[in-house]
Specification:
By secondary structure, the chain is mostly beta strands. The protein is built from three helices and 29 strands.
Length: 403
């Protein structure tokens, strides 16, 4: 995919005007986009985007992405608040100037891709194999996971290879009960040596003034008496957005079996998982869901969102996980550890588990998509703020040309 940063000078006299319609919800520093395929002169164009809502035109950072199909999309952050039921007007002008340095950058340290905002690390995608700790079975080695995930103040909020669960890897997406060709395999519990998930390659990376990110391909592999077999391919699309007050990033997973149908069998945990920093125990972290459930009440309930806040070295930080309404079995059931976990320590684990209460059959040639948004913050989260962020994700503002 081709990425083009956008310039900050006016190009030409003619400009396309578009309106961002807030719809039924207040929009606060929202991610918005507009398909400019039929307006852009060519994919090498740069764009000047201007906010026309004030007394003067204000230039707005924007970013273009063109995919292999020829679709070209302009992205930007609608800063401040657009109240429900109102609109904001922007002008789009085309030219051929090139932009300056990106504020949302990406660094490859030859082990991981690190997404950064103005030099501060957001998350690291580990595409090389992390060996098991010394003295631990090598079966617990893994690649293809996110760790660390940082807060804006620099607190590390993820944990990998903890002594109690060596197969936990920060933020990761394996499946526990996978039926392939009539046999049951477990790709989550690495110690069972039935299968694993491996990073294959990076197909695209992105950086600019609005977002950074990557497209990564992973392989779901089973171990059989005749050797290893690739049974499912996965593509992660991760984007981090230049919003104020926190780190906002999207996680998208496309799954497709390679040759035979796969049944993801009902089980109490599987899919998008998060293992929290070892600093958090029952004494210094809390959880809350969209349904008003607190930690001792959550496991097995459904939720559109869940947040966790805890005390860290640099003060309180937390993560808000948002599940997209188009996900399979949404709002998805949750698997979490209550305060009695790990002998009463109360370590934190959160899992959106779409197969917690039913089977899910996947067919070769028909990819399925799971989408989650994560907002990482310092300080406190409120249910009202979490709900606003979910509504913005689930029912985004509409951008259309002015009539």
């Amino acid at each position: 995919m081709l990425l083009i940063n956008c310039a900050t000078e006016m190009f030409g006299a003619d400009a396309l005007k578009v309106k961002v319609n807030a719809g039924k919800h207040d929009r606060i520093s929202s991610v918005v986009s507009f398909d400019i395929s039929k307006y852009a002169p060519n994919t090498n164009s740069s764009v000047l985007l201007q906010d026309l809502s004030g007394n003067k035109k204000n230039a707005v950072p924007c970013q273009i992405v063109s995919d292999k199909s020829g679709k070209t999309v302009l992205y930007w952050i609608a800063s401040g608040t657009i109240p429900a039921g109102t609109t904001r007007t922007y002008s789009i002008s085309f030219g051929n100037k090139q932009a300056g340095s990106p504020t949302m950058s990406i660094e490859d340290n030859h082990k991981a891709l690190v997404l950064k905002k103005e030099g501060r690390p957001i998350l690291a995608y580990n595409y090389t194999v992390t060996p098991a700790p010394e003295g631990v079975d090598p079966a617990f080695s893994r690649s293809g996971y996110i760790h660390p995930a940082w807060s804006p103040s620099g607190n590390v909020l993820t944990n990998i290879q903890p002594k109690d669960h060596r197969h936990h890897y920060g933020i990761w997406n394996p499946w526990t009960h996978v039926i392939y060709d009539g046999t049951l395999y477990d790709l989550w519990n690495l110690g069972d040596k039935q299968g694993t998930v491996r990073a294959r390659d990076i197909s695209s990376t992105y950086q600019g003034t609005v977002f950074n990110g990557y497209d990564a391909n992973l392989d779901h592999v089973i171990f059989t008496p005749k050797g290893e077999k690739l049974i499912m391919k996965e593509c992660w699309k991760v984007r981090s957005w230049d919003v104020p007050e926190g780190f906002l990033w999207d996680f998208e997973s496309d799954l497709v079996p390679t040759s035979l149908p796969i049944i993801l069998r009902e089980y109490r945990y599987a899919g998008f998982g998060y293992r929290a920093t070892a600093d958090w125990t029952k004494s210094n972290c809390i959880m809350m869901t969209s349904e008003g459930k607190s930690r001792q009440q959550i496991d097995g309930t459904r939720a559109r969102w869940i947040y966790i806040t805890g005390q860290c070295a640099n003060g309180k930080s937390g993560l808000l996980f948002l599940g997209h309404p188009d996900n399979y079995n949404a709002p998805q059931p949750l698997r979490i550890w209550d305060e009695n976990a790990n002998g009463g320590r109360g370590d934190a684990f959160i899992n959106f588990a779409p197969t917690k209460n039913e089977d899910w059959q996947l067919q070769p040639g028909y990819p399925v998509r799971l989408r989650y948004r994560v907002f990482v913050y310092d300080g406190e989260m409120t249910s009202a703020r979490a709900e606003q962020l979910w509504q913005d994700y689930a029912d985004p503002a509409i951008v259309a040309p002015c009539e």
